[in-house]
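User: Could you check the structure of this?
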Amino acid sequence: MSTQTTPEVSWAQRSSSTDAEKNYIYLTIAAPDVPKIDVDLKPTGLTFTGHSDTKKTTYHVELEFYAEIDVENSKTHHTSRDVFFVLRKKEMKEEYWPRLLKESKKIHFLKTDFDKWVDEDEQEGAPDDAMAGMGGMGGGMPGMGGMGEDGGFGGIDFSKLGGGAGGMPGMGDMPDMGEGGNDDDDDDDEEMPALEEDDDDKVGDSKLKVQEKDDEGVPAAKSKIEEVS
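Assistant: Sure, the predicted structure tokens are below.
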């Protein structure tokens, strides 16, 4: 039986009165193993729904923003773990939003994303790590229902993760181990020289004397092995 779960939502922001590209909200919704998502993004809020068969739950959350956003210039990126949004603020100003949501009450599922957060007076020289590599993010937020025709995982080709270690990204081509394991080990075994018999162990015409010594070099015992006629 499927249940409904409110996903964890984290956020951070940047602000600018002159550059629209630096005036946005970072929003992450943690919804793992959701192949398709329904997102209804409006200037005043966002509604998210996504079902996970593996988790046997439906993630659902509705957010009403503190101020309006520019829907047309907002972007999203869907992965196997979460859904990441870059929401352009409609009003350009230097001051941060005092909070994400319109209501000021504490929300149990909402938290600050400290990995992306930069204080208002320190954002000028801060790197835009969260925006790096996001050039392939999808736009056109309106009408996103049923998003994820490619499996919904942000363009990740999971077929490359299977089929043996040789196909693992970044692993390079692994040598073929064969059915018998590592051939090098067998070669090493074959090249081991045969043990030779010590002439002293052979039965000869002379007598063999064996002398053992203790740690201090004092003879411990003596014995004689004589030829058996």
